Amino acid sequence: MKAVLVEQAGGAEALHLAEIEMPKLDKPNQVLIRLKAAGLNPIDYKVRQALDRFPVTLPAVLGCDGAGVVEAVGEDVERFQAGDQVYFCQAGFNGRQGTYAEYAVVDEALVAHKPKSLDFHQAAAVPLVLLTAWEALFDRVQLQNRMKVLVQAGAGGVGHIAIQLAKLAGAEVATTISTQEKEDFVRRLSADFPIRYREADVVDEIRAWTGGEGVDIVFDTVGDRVFSQSCACCRVYGELVTILLPPPEVDWTDARVRNLQISLEMMLTPVLLELPEWQAHQGHILKSAAELFDQNKLEVQVAKTFPLAEAAEAQRYLETQAPLGKVVLTID
Description:
It is a single chain. With about 325 residues, this protein is of the alpha/beta class. The chain folds into two domains: about 1-125 and about 270-330, Quinone Oxidoreductase, Chain A, domain 1; about 130-265, Rossmann fold. Helices cover about 30% and strands about 25% of the residues. It contains eleven helices and 16 strands. The protein has helices at about 40-50, 120-125, 125-140, 155-170, 180-190, 200-210, 225-235, 255, 270, 275-295, 310-320, and strands at about 1-5, 15-20, 30-40, 60, 65-75, 85-90, 105, 110-115, 150, 170-175, 195, 215-220, 235-240, 260-265, 300-305, 325-330. Strands 3, 5, 6, 7, 8, 15 and 16 form a seven-stranded mixed β-sheet that branches. Strands 11-10-9-12-13-14 form a six-stranded parallel β-sheet, sandwiched between helices.
């Protein structure tokens, strides 16, 4: 089968298309999927840049998100059969293979039936960002009706899903964006208070929006200096959840004085640490999300598609352009 490989750490040029052996079902709980599309995420190029920091087997097939058609199932698989259209998120860690390929073997627990209302390209754009936003807002913190929430970078992959989930929960949502196009986009998603972070002081804007108190929850999808800004945007006894490690030079004064609850979110943990119960939880989230997509309560934005052979260009585009929504590889 065709697959995009990386053999040594480096830039996007380290990726190359090759013919490799088709994967086989090694365990009774696995599903063989013929991939139709693969979603790209920042973790893909972070792994490519520092292969020694991740439990990958070289040459490695990168990619976490996939959508396609079930080809075969292991003897213990109960929820799927050949011909089912599915989507999933499975990082190529601990002997697994990623999704930049024509086929992949995936643990059944991580797979869900594809939303009927989405094509394969749209479905492949969903899993990692949906799981990240869902776990952040509903597992790490307990988002509730009428809370005020700040989503940092609301037009990005994780951010645009987080806005929609927060609105479904009944929250009022502020979000940071950079351009008029992105402001129009997040307003279409029903964001209540877009903030042009290049033109306004985000902390001042949030304090004005909340009558000086700050928001109940901040969801930081950016990291670095934005983490400190996020602390300052929280109300006293508020909550902050971030998908990045806080920078080592962070000033914790605001967080300490305001008695904030700080949470970390990394949706790859169940595969990284081999946690079957949490893998099943993620599969259940994808099943629940599929119902929301089919009820027109969620949507996903695909910024651009590239053929599998142009995976290097696709990663380069994602890494440098800060696209509106997700980048996807098409697999014929």
